[in-house]
Every structure is written in structure tokens, then in C-alpha cells.
TrEMBL record, chain A:
Family to which the UniProt record says this protein belongs: Belongs to the complex I 51 kDa subunit family.
GO molecular function: 4 iron, 4 sulfur cluster binding; FMN binding; metal ion binding; NADH dehydrogenase (ubiquinone) activity
UniProt keyword Zinc-finger, yes or no: no
Keywords associated with the record: 4Fe-4S, Iron, Iron-sulfur, Metal-binding
Co-factor requirement: [4Fe-4S] cluster; FMN
NCBIfam families to which the protein is assigned, alphabetical: PRK13596.1
Source organism: Komagataeibacter swingsii
Protein name (Swiss-Prot/TrEMBL): NADH-quinone oxidoreductase subunit F
Automatic annotation (TrEMBL), chain B:
Family matches, as CDD domains: TRX_Fd_NuoE
Record's keyword annotation contains Glycoprotein: no
Gene source species: Komagataeibacter swingsii
Record note on cofactor: Binds 1 [2Fe-2S] cluster.
Protein name: NADH-quinone oxidoreductase subunit E
Gene3D superfamilies documented for this protein: Glutaredoxin, NADH-quinone oxidoreductase subunit E
Pfam families: 2Fe-2S_thioredx (PF01257)
Amino acid sequence: MTPASERPLTAMIDPAAGPPDCAAYERHGGWQATRRALGRLAPAEIIDMVTRSKLRGRGGAGFGTGQKWSFVPKESATERQKYLIANADEMEPGTFKDRWLLEGNPLQLIEGMILAAYAVQAGHGIIFLRGEYHLACTRLHRAIGEARQLGWLGENILGSGFGLDIHVHSSAGRYICGEETALLTALEGRRPTPRSKPPFPQTGGLWGAPSVVNNVETLCNLPHIITNGPEWFAGLGLGEDGGTKIYGVSGRVARPGAWELPIGTPLRQIIEERAGGMRPGYQLRALLPGGASTAFLDAAALDVAMDYGSVEKAGSRLGTGMAIILDDRTCPIGMIRNLEHFFAQESCGWCTPCRDGLPWVERLLDAIEDGTGQDEDMDQLARHARMLGAPGRTFCAHAPGAMAPLASGLKLFAADFAAHIRQRRCPQQSGA
Amino acid sequence: MLTAEAPLPAPVRAEILALAAQEPHPRGAGVAALRLVQAHFGWVSTAHLREVAALLGMSADDLDGIATCFNLLFRRPVGRHVIMLCDSVTCWIMGREPLCAHLWLTLGIRPGETTADNAITLLPTVCIGHCDHAPAMLVDNALHGNVTTATLDHLIDTLGHTP
């Protein structure tokens, strides 16, 4: 048996060689978990193992994976129609981790889906892939075809009586589809509007059937948890959480990129050691730790451990774990304007506060950045941050996510906002 | 020659019906069917939208509500090549605005417009997951990173556009 890797998710990824085929995947430790699980472990045992591994969702919300599965009705896959859906609609600005996994080792995702589907007894698998990921799409189709041919997908896998097939849904570009109920609505051929909960997807999801939606990175962890055990996986993390995490850094750092590291690795280590620190001539001013919908942290917060609890305690969210750096030569108001343009454009338009509030925020920021802002605009921005930022005032988490960088930015960059209004222009040449 | 006003060719209609048959309800194939039409014609005309809607048992307006809400489904004709320049946060920080300005100077088109010779359409796109190589863009289906004005000039040449 191959010794357990300390970076299990990316151990088999070699961009020069391309993704492994079924045989190479097996040579490097793949399919062991499927052999161990199917027909030998009860679905409830898998759910228990994943719960004990302390795996939490890697898509942004961070819900316990074992707990998420535990709400699915227990009938077997042959008795009841159920769905397991991989959320590969990676559209959070600043995030490029799932693309690495999808292009680098699609069979790992397929095996993760087999294990998850077996645990919740779902006979139908769907990969909801964002339409812009063309290479990932080609490689997924090829991997699914080979897995089908060799009997890893289809009816009665390994003679266990359990069957699963996987279908790739290529979406057509809409951020809101990453929200799990909007994703289900999109799969049903409707405008991707989020749904009211309850019913939760686990009991009433796709076409009314029990459904589980898990992020790509979450699913890719499962083969390693089953092969090496939940205690091994829990021990990989440096703090409260289990496993590794794919972290990334983009912006004006020396070496932007993504790295698989123990979950709970300090932010400073990721930025200074992995990303090589700032480029010459630039200072780090602030950052979004986990994508566009997380609150700004300033340079003083760099020693935070990048796990769910620690980042929350520091006033933000781990999110996708992919940090975006604001340097000292980029205008923070310009950056927030760019973020709010994105959120305003990607609002599904279903509920009024989000549909009308986000464009209003964008116009106020336009005015301030362009030198026509007024003091009252600051009160209006603060009011929006307060009204849209609290959960429960909009239909889904889109507007609260949009307000995270705004609310934190209003505090952190108060002097910059004031200077824009006072000087009637942007004091910094931005985005150049 | 395939045109957007002629009826859908029989094999495309058959493929749409096959997609619909795989779904618990035919409308589940809506996005896939529209993508298929676009792959053949470059965009989705109103005539084709009506045909697809009829095949899926939907009203044309219902299907148009889906077609118009997705960024990658084009309800207007586009050029032979589509440049999608990322306008999200990391690419903005790394200088996508000067690139957009360069395309305006070189090609005379702004986002949403097509060159007069119908060679190139320029569209904005949200983050395409290539932030470690920002600024990034998609040219048709190909991903390009660390884009500079020199990259753009070379690209414009290879796409067969004469300014």
C-alpha cells in the first residue's frame, strides 16, 4: 500500500503528464476506498467515518459534511430516487482551486462521488460544471467514459448491488448557480433562483427527490478518508478542523498560485513563504481571505490561522480559502466598486433588497470613485451594509456576501473614502 | 450554409429530443439544448429559440427567460471569434482596464461590440478561475493568462483581423 500522503488531494496531479487514467490512478492508491467501502461498509459507517474526520464543506459555507449527509432519508438507492451533485460551478472571484482538481485528477472526484453517493444511497450523480471550464469538461467526459467502461460506474459496481452513473451538466455562466438551491432550480430548466428552505435539498431537492450538493474539493477528500481512516485525516489539520485545504493567493505577490497545506496554516505563512511575499515596490495593505464575499482583513491580522473558527474570530470567513491581496498602490474604493459591480450584475433579481440595493451601492461607489460623491453617500452605504448584510433580510446569502467587503471596507478605509469626497477625485491611480 | 433563420437541421432536432428524453422533464435539457444550437450557429436566434421551446414543451418566453439570464448564451449574433476579458477583482487589480482600452484603440470596439469585418466580438466575463495568471481572458474556448498589450496584438493578427 502506498504510504499516506500529507497532501493527498494533489499528490497525483502532474500538469506536465496530464490526468492519470484508471490504471495509473489505481497504481497510486486510487480505487482502494471504493473496494473497501462498497458492499463491505454500511452507508451509516461511511457517514460516521466522515463525521469523525471533521471534514467541513470546502465551497465556502463550511457545513460539516457527515452532518449534511445525515439528514438524507435512509432508503436504499434501489428503493428511492436520490441525487448526489458535485458543485463544480466555481465562480467566486479570486478562486481557482476546483479547476486544479477537475483538470488534474478527475477520477479522484469520480471516486469521491461514488463514496458520497453510496453513503447517502443516491443512484444518480451529476457534476454541475461552470460553462467556462472547457478543459475540465473534456477531461471529465473522458474520465467518466473510461470509468464506465471498466465498471467503476454503472450498475452493480464491484458486485456490491450498488449502482451509480454520472452526468456532466455544463452550465452557461451564472454566479448564483453556486448557491445549492439555485443550482437545483437551474438543473430543472428554470431561471436559477434560490429556493426557500425548508424543504432542505436533503429531503426535497432535485425534481423533489432527496439530494446532496457537495463542493468538488469536499468530495475529493473522501477517498483519502476511507483509505487512511478518519483519525489520520483529522490529524492532518493544525487546529480544530480536519484535513488539508487548498489555499491560494492572487494579486501583486511575487508568486501567485494555489497550494495544498494543512488546514489551519497561518495566513502569513501562505503569503510570505508560498506566494513569496509582495512584489518589489508594493506593500500589503489588506486582503480578502476567502474570495470576493468575505470581509477584508488588514495587515495586522496576518497571523490568523486559516481555519473556519479562527478566521471568523478575526472578523471574516475562511470562504474558499483563496486570498485576494490589496496592495498599497491600488485604490481600495476602486476595488470595492469592482466587487459590488460583480455582485449587482450577478444578483438573480428575485428579491427586492438585493435586486435594487446592490446596483444602488454600485452607483454610490461609482460617484465616490469618480469624484462626485457627497458626505450623505457614506450614510447611505452604511445603511445598505447594515440592511443587506444581516442574514434573513434577503432571500439567500448573495447580498450578505456582497456586503461583507463593503461593511469591513467602510471601517478599514474610512480615510480613503473621506479623501475621495473631499478632493473630488480618486487620489490614487487605480487598477493600473 | 447554416443560417440563423433557416429551420434547425434534423440531426440537431433529434439531438435535442435525445437530451430531453434523458431528463425527468424535457425542460431539464433547456440549457444543454440552447448550448447545442449556439455551437452550430454561434448564437441563438428567436426562430431557433421558438423551435427549441416547442421541442421541450415550453413557451418561447419561458425558455427566453433562461436564455437571457446566462452570460454564455448569446441572443444576438457574435463575430467569428469571441474575446472574453475577465473584469473581476484580481484581473482589475492586475491591469485589465488598460487592456480593454488597448482593444478599443486597436479594434475600435468596446465590450459588447463586434468589429465591422465580423471577426471579433469583445465581451466582459466574470472571474474565469485563472487569477494566478491575471489578467486573464478566454478566446473562444482557450484560456489565456498574463495577458499584455503585446499578447493582444499577436492574437488580433492570428484571428485574421486587419485593422
